[in-house]
Every structure is written in C-alpha cells, then in structure tokens.
Design goal:
260 residues; four-stranded antiparallel β-sheet; 45% helix; globular
Amino acid sequence: MTAPRRTSEWNIYHVINRGDGKKVIFEDSEDNMCFLDKIQEAFEACNVSLLSWCLMSNHFHLLVHGSMEAVSRAMQWAQGDYAKIFNARHGHVGHVFQRRFKSEPVHSEAYLATVVRYIHANPVQAHLCATCADYPWSSYREYVPGPMLSGYCKTLCATGLVKSAFGSLADFEQFHAQKSRPDECMDIDADRPEATRMTDDEARKRAEHLLGQVNLGNLAQLPKPERDAAVALLKADGISSRQIQRLTGIGLKLIRNAGT
C-alpha cells in the first residue's frame, strides 16, 4: 500500500524522482532541455511555481510551490510526456521513472534555505564539480549572476520566495559556500523505499508508545543522558531525525549525535 503524501501548510515541496532501476534518464543536453521544457509547460498549466532545480544523470531534484494536487498533476503530465519522448529518441521501452515521485514538505524558512542548498550542492556531493556555480544543469545561475554553462537560457524559477529567505545575494553565496551534508534532507533519501516512511502522526503515536510517560514536548528539557537515550530509542525504531525534530523541538545536530 502506498503511503499518503505529507502536506505543507506553505505548499512548498522538495520533489525527487530517479530512473527505473536507477537507470540514466538524461543521456545528453537535449534530454535535459526537453525535460525542463516539459516541466515549464506542465507547471504553467497547473499553477505550480518552480523555486529550484537540479538534473543529474539518473535523477532530478525540484523545489516547487503549489498545492499537492496541482503538483501531482503537473508531475504526472511532465514525466509522462518526457518518458514518451525519451523512449522514442533513444529506442527504449518500458518505464523511465522509478515509481511515483517522492515529496517532502517544507515547513520553515530555515529549512527552505537548506533544501535549496542541498539541491544545488547535489553535483558537488557527487564529485562532479568543485562548486555549485560550476555545474551547468541547476538553477544556481538563476540566483547568482554568471555564465549559463548549459546554454539553456530560459528563466524557469520564481526566485522571490527563496531570495527573501536569504536576505541578500551575499548571504545566498555564503550559505552555498558552506559544505552541504549528504544527510541534510534525510526524509527524501532517494534510495529509501517510500512505503517505509511514516507520516508525522504515525511517528508521534509510535514515539508516545515507546516513551511511555515521557511527554514529547518536554524531551528537550531532560538531562542529556536521558534525552539522548530517548532519542536513540526513537531513531532505532525507524523514526527519522527530522520527524524527531518536529515532534520534540530538539536540534538536528543533537539528534544525530544521540547514541553515537
């Protein structure tokens, strides 16, 4: 059974999908441009805004703004059209994308900035380039003036919302210059089966069952040994670090260090 999608009161989502069986879905620049054209076409028709993007050889990341219903409709449209063109162009048959796309809700301005950096830093983490500015197939150059290395000169992103989260171009560049951790967006890990992810309601119920009389809202105030033991127990049960953060208010660094 497919897990229901978690929704954001901000209507902002980090969206990812990859090739079926991790196969390459972008063979060359023409494929990249075709996919971006289909995204633009579908998003405009469905009233969805693109905030950030990055195309890798076998997967893509998008940060989008719109209702989940509209996002789902737009993604189905764009992926379906692209898959037909990709298969016809390269002589392939069968599925192009792996299952349905994954989505993670964005609930705060701070996490919005983190997701934008995570998306732009994806090729840096994969050792494809030294800096975000060096990679041709991301939205980084839509925010930071400079040469468009891909030759794809269309403006795809509605940049106002992201710019307001950073405050200034200097802040944007400085934040991106900081090293992005591979685990910054654990809730949308591309290799993790979606069906295993719990909703926040399910995570809360499991946490309350595990901790018994300990109130989740008071967990952050416990002495460090007790707090770390409780957090380690929640992590061992499969509750993600970000869900623990949302349920308890404890910082991600403390959560990740608990039990180590």
